[in-house]
């Protein structure tokens, strides 16, 4: 006899909130002992010069040294962020007014260990996050903290070529142990690596790799990823030992893939693309390298160097939950000529059934329901949507209002599909919309690509008062949270 009661609608205690990253938010890049990180070196390229393409890789040591020589004269938007470092109390008060249950943020590794390989932490960095966590606690907001969100200390790139070097495992574990010890009792939800699969598209941002320093780029990327898998599993082990009440998850940039047609060639290519995406969560949730990737490595002459005990640590310390970002879906084809087309974030084909954002990202709410069902069927662990949102141009009207109905429509449609997935039996524990307050875009370093419910008065070149204004979506999301998703 079946006794399980079916969940309908969002469960009690559902973690509604918003998501950010230190490097896009904080500013104060050279204050109170902070070292440079990889995103501090990414310059702004106007949209008319690059189209919708993402511009965030630094590819060579020469390019990196030239950027360093420029000092802060060039337009490095992530160095200034939106001054959360000095305005965190004001911003957290606005999050509390919206009713946030949780706030996803990251700790800047370079604020705690300025070089990454330091033996002792920077106390001023630790104190800053103490103040942030205390302010969140004042309003009953649970922090959800990412340990590494595109914030590899730059010194680790210059000296070790990032995660290609096994020594970074120990540096990361030292960092993780330091913050776990320091913030135990203040943080109950943790993530290890943000969008760990991004190294496939951006070796520099995902793994701190300068591709001119390696002979076989794909080999270097997957070796670096192995080191990150081991570091993540060791962080999971430490978290459970230091904070038994805490939960720690992995984080994937989810890329649901549709076949262009029902032709078996298209279906096979879509399956293989999906496997390349799910490989990362297979390792971190299931605890082992899947056979399809071992086959891929063999076919592509990729040899992963493992130390004794690596496979054991991966198997014994899987994550507690699976978190992911969701912005769009992809379309795959078995016809190589079709792949020359440009669609969405990385590659693929334009889906004729979907509308697109101002930046060409196709909008697919039902795809979120599909991916929730697929992930839960595959893993049977709690799921957490930790990034989802619409990057758009916002207009401030003469009366100061910002009528972003397009953003409300976007979130409403996605939240409706989340509710359907929960009704289908998916265990979904939370939702943090990306860029709940306007911040510097990760992919384009623009300020004009806005995601927030809160407007920040700053342009792409850093001009503006930094005044915070509530958009129309602010009150809408406040009511969504208050009603636990029943009033959309």
Describe, in plain words, how this protein is organized in 3D:
Keywords: Glycosidase, Hydrolase. The protein is α/β, with parallel strands linked by helices. It has a single domain (15-482), classed as TIM Barrel, CATH 3.20.20. It contains 17 helices and 14 strands. Helix 5 (84-98) packs parallel to helix 7 (123-138) and helix 15 runs parallel beside helix 16. The radius of gyration is 21 Å and the shape is globular. It starts with 14 loop residues before the first strand and ends in a 6-residue tail after the last helix.
Radius of gyration: 21 Å
Class by alpha and beta content: alpha/beta
Structurally, the number of domains stands at 1
Number of helices: 17
Short description:
The protein is of the alpha/beta class. The chain is built from 17 helices and 14 strands. Helix content is 40%, strand content 13%.
Blueprint (SSEs and pairs):
Elements: E1 15-19, H1 22-25, H2 47-50, H3 61-69, H4 77-80, H5 84-98, E2 102-106, H6 109-112, H7 123-138, E3 142-148, H8 154-160, H9 167-183, E4 189-193, H10 203-207, H11 217-242, E5 247-253, E6 256-259, H12 264-286, H13 291-299, H14 310-316, E7 321-325, E8 329-332, E9 355-356, E10 362-363, H15 365-379, E11 383-387, H16 405-423, E12 428-434, E13 454-456, E14 468-470, H17 472-482
Parallel strand pairs: 1-2, 1-12, 2-3, 3-4, 4-5, 5-7, 6-8, 7-11, 11-12
Antiparallel strand pairs: 9-10, 13-14
Helix pairs in contact: 5-7, 9-11, 11-14, 15-16
């Amino acid at each position: 006899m079946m006794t399980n009661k079916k969940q309908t609608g969002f469960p009690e205690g559902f973690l509604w909130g918003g998501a950010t990253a230190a490097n896009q938010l904080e500013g104060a890049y050279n204050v109170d002992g902070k070292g440079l990180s990889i995103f501090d070196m990414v310059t702004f390229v106007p949209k008319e010069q690059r189209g919708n393409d993402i511009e965030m890789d630094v590819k060579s040591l020469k390019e990196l040294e030239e950027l360093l020589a420029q000092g802060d004269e060039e337009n490095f938007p992530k160095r200034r962020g939106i001054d959360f470092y000095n305005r965190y109390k004001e911003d957290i008060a606005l999050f509390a007014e919206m009713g946030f249950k949780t706030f996803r943020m990251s700790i800047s590794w370079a604020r705690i260990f300025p070089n990454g390989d330091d033996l002792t932490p920077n106390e001023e960095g630790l104190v800053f996050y103490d103040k942030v966590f205390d302010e969140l606690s004042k309003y009953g907001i649970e922090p959800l903290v990412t340990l590494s969100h595109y914030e590899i200390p730059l010194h680790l790139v210059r000296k070790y070529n990032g995660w290609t070097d096994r020594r970074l495992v120990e540096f990361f574990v030292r960092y993780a142990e330091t913050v776990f010890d320091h913030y135990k009792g203040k943080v109950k939800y943790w993530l290890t690596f943000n969008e760990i699969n991004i190294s496939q598209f951006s070796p520099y941002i995902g793994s701190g790799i300068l591709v001119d320093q390696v002979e076989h780029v794909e080999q270097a990327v997957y070796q670096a990823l192995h080191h990150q898998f081991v570091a993540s599993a060791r962080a999971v082990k430490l978290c459970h030992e230091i904070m038994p009440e805490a939960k720690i998850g992995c984080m994937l940039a989810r890329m649901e893939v549709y076949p262009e047609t029902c032709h078996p060639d298209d279906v096979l290519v879509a399956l293989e693309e999906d496997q390349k995406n799910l490989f990362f969560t297979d390792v971190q949730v299931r605890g082992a390298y899947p056979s399809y990737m071992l086959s891929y490595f063999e076919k592509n002459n990729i040899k992963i160097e493992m130390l004794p005990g690596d496979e054991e640590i991966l198997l014994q310390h899987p994550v507690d939950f699976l978190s992911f970002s969701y912005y769009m879906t992809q379309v795959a084809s078995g016809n190589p000529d079709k792949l020359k087309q440009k669609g969405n974030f990385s590659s693929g084909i334009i889906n004729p059934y979907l509308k697109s954002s101002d930046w060409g990202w196709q909008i697919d709410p039902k795809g979120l329901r599909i991916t929730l069902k697929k992930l839960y069927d595959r893993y049977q662990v709690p799921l957490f949507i930790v990034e989802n949102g619409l990057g758009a141009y916002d207009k401030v009207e003469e009366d100061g209002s910002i009528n972003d109905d397009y953003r409300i429509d976007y979130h409403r449609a996605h939240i409706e599909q989340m509710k359907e997935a929960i009704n289908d039996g998916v265990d979904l524990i939370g939702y943090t919309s990306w860029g709940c307050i306007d911040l510097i875009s990760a992919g384009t370093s623009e300020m004009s690509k806005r995601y927030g419910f809160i407007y920040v008065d700053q342009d792409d070149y850093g001009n503006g008062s930094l005044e915070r204004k509530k958009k129309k979506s602010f009150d809408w999301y406040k009511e969504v949270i208050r009603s636990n998703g029943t009033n959309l």
